[in-house]
């Protein structure tokens, strides 16, 4: 089975092992160590870590298209936000009549706007299953339509980056409008519970944190499986020599579309896990600056190494939390400098630094192993 | 007349006494007493009794106003109009605003500013300021709505007799739709005497409106084609009226006007569209050079625009009171500042990322964040005001329905001049030739002795400098703040991509047409939706024609 | 939508997706047929009313001075450039102008570029694996496994092109000549009916050139080969039939000796070359 192929890779096993250990450690320190003890992990921290993990999943999604397919999407925040809005709509409907206005069906902001019934696109979001489906389908559909048009016309490289940016910018403007029916400027917030569990309880927060960790693990394995397959090699081929790949008979635009849609769906899942943990989704997630920041996480961690994307997302967001707490003004300077330094001095990111020695070891071993029938799957 | 009583010495004394012993108030008290003394001196210098015969008549005229009967007040107003007293206008307008008042002592004063409890007042006869008075010591000379209308016409008539042309024009403007039977007579005479054609035209229009209101069919001929809203109001009333003949004539006149208005509205939309387009062209044309010609993605381009705008602001701070001169000096200064910043970016970042466009994009985005935050920290996160000089404010009135704001016109002209300049540089100078050579075949150009690095720097400086020029122009149209550039970067890229990369003409056409499209969409879609529609349109357009409106052809362009 | 149906309809086999056993219809003679093809870039006619016929199993060399339109002609045949006018047929059934690059490639036309283009980040083995004739749709590619037979075939080609020892090294580290060979190897993996080979021996040593000549002549008969080459010695060593292009159209056609003695050719081509050598 192609999906199980990553489990025979050492790097994937290490990644999954580290992730699992981290999840268990945080859980243990949160539950077993008493409050007030220096080693106790507070519910706030668990929540924060959960948020980081959802960002990490988003970074993996971006790395899949940028690192392996060479498509620099400056609009992945849009897919993240769409997944987030789908989840937000479900959470909104869960509030029921406990809103400020106490309307049994309409969310507060609709009552405030004097709407008398739910718009059609809000129907069905009271069902968790439907909402989860939309978490995948909404970003997936957008990516399908957009990608279909873009790749068919062979819009690639910088052009594609710029129009993905325009896409998320246009969506941001649209979602700012009250008439869109997504809460306008304020977005969706004041959530109460998810699947019947109160969002304010520590146990739910821990649950969401663990769920995000599991989603990250699954997303990682999925991406690894794609990357390690022959299709993954077609992706790399497309990235490096698109025309040549076409002349070999591959439908490059379909490969691009397939991977782009998968990546958009992953981003949507990340958004859906992010929203209940931060308690709000608003149009600022569509802002071009956020999308471009995601790319920085990947660049810092190391392009075309999925674990690098995870490392980058965690590093940058941890730094952001620390910086904005201590010197809020300095954060944008630091972020800007990071963009410049990483691209100029660290083109292969942190993973490139880490991987340098490992690669040399590996190559030596590989050269020794090179016999005509050496197993390809494991080393690809 | 009695001595002028000072309304507030007692109050001051009382409050001073009340806070006696409070050390902080000592200075206030001293100042109050000083003012008191000065005021007292001023009062003594002014004798309240009429000094001249003219003043005596004036007092009589004003006295006539202070009666209870509104009919008599009306006559008194007529008398003032006929008096030819040069202060008549001030009295009438003060009366209209309720600022003509009488003190307890019977003295007529004009209240200068009726906010708060103590109002500064001036003598109605001499115009001398009399300090502040408590509102309780003053009596307003009341008027009703009928008198208010009469006053407005009266003031208009007074103004029409004035020697000041601007006053006459403004007055004629105000009279439109306000003419009644009493005014009609004097106005017809005035038209004969009037020397200014514009005033005459206005008065004739005002009279025609009046005649239409009286049911005169011939008046419609005069109103037909007039774009003034008052004429339209009068015509619509007539069209809805009982007189069938009049109504149908009015309707057909309204139809004609509507046609004309449509044209004018289209012209206005076009003007606003071209204006917005010129802004887009200015913002994008520098990008067309750095991105289009050099292939460098500079995400900090918007911040270079911002630097240009801030340079204008800084020049105005350096030359207080001379906003025009500062603006003119800001043109070369803005160019220089942005060009230098551009060189710093090229040398500091971009040269290390040659041939890696996506990395260049990310790195320059980092630069843009740093520049924005720098401005926030060093200057202020808030918007700065840039003054529009005299010669750029106001508007050019084409007709009653169409007036073109001057600042937009100047920016439009500026954009065209910048464009023409760039075309000249690229087509006619050695630099332009070298730039084109380096873009087309770097290795070959180098082997022919062109210093490619130098060309890179100069080209980038040129593109950046033009961004600075855009900033100078933008400072006249929008707020100057740290986010200024961010708002234009996506639009600029859209313009360049839409026009066809590497083609300056394409940028011009794309910028102007996007501006017009945006303005055409705005009335029925709203500003935000119009912008979204334009973005979606470009996204779709690029997919249909990935190389823009004016693509470059050939094997080299296939990449 | 086309894409969705092709995903849903996995059992259906599109005729253009069946590799190697290309359905090309050559019963009526030529495998490639160009008629009155014209293309211009900004007014410059790169190809001007070009007529060219390649028979099944033929080895044809195309020569011509720089700018004669050789590469543009390849671009047109492989679908990279659309001509302004003319017809291009593969066999008597397939109109190449109605297809895009992957369709044309799947039909059995393989191309080696003038500048060797291999996938530098992938290993030599993986380069060959990707080139191999196979079902190249998305899901089959995603789930593809390497069968023993496929591995043997790749190993065989690796031996042929002499890169067996470098099989797991990234292609980016290969020398220019090795990249040329790898690209020829990729062509072999594709098992095309028609090979378009653009300057195969540029940057090769005498020895390598000989091997290349051997390889290409060996292919002819089973497959049709069109070689564009500057190196006259090489052309002479392999050519049976030579076409001379000049200013976008055919100047002369025939055996190497016939062509070389054609006064027109001597004037525009050999003459030009002689001048070049002098200069």
Automatic annotation (TrEMBL), chain A:
Q: Where are the transmembrane segments?
A: 52-85, 130-151, 157-176, 206-227, 255-275, 295-319, 331-356
- List locations, semicolon-separated: Cell inner membrane
Molecular function in Gene Ontology: branched-chain amino acid transmembrane transporter activity
- Classification via PANTHER family: HIGH-AFFINITY BRANCHED-CHAIN AMINO ACID TRANSPORT SYSTEM PERMEASE, SLR1201 PROTEIN
What topology does it adopt in the membrane? Multi-pass membrane protein
- Keyword Transcription regulation assigned: no
Does the keyword field hold Glycosyltransferase? no
Q: What is this protein called?
A: Urea ABC transporter permease subunit UrtC
Question: Keywords assigned by UniProt?
Answer: Cell membrane, Membrane, Transmembrane, Transmembrane helix
Q: Which gene encodes it?
A: urtC
Q: Which GO terms describe its cellular component?
A: plasma membrane
Q: What NCBIfam families is this protein classified in?
A: urea_trans_UrtC (TIGR03408)
From TrEMBL, chain C:
Instruction: Please name the Gene3D superfamilies in this protein's record.
Output: P-loop containing nucleotide triphosphate hydrolases
- Keyword match Disulfide bond: no
Alphabetic keyword roster? ATP-binding, Nucleotide-binding, Transport
* Residues annotated as domain ABC transporter: 32-272
| GO MF, one annotated term | ATP hydrolysis activity
Kindly give the CDD domains that the UniProt entry links to this protein: ABC_Mj1267_LivG_branched
What Pfam families does UniProt report for this protein, alphabetically? ABC_tran (PF00005), BCA_ABC_TP_C (PF12399)
Mind telling me which GO cellular component terms the entry cites?
Answer: plasma membrane
The coiled-coil segments of this chain are none
Does Membrane count among this protein's keywords? Answer: no
State the name under which the record lists this protein: Urea ABC transporter ATP-binding protein UrtD
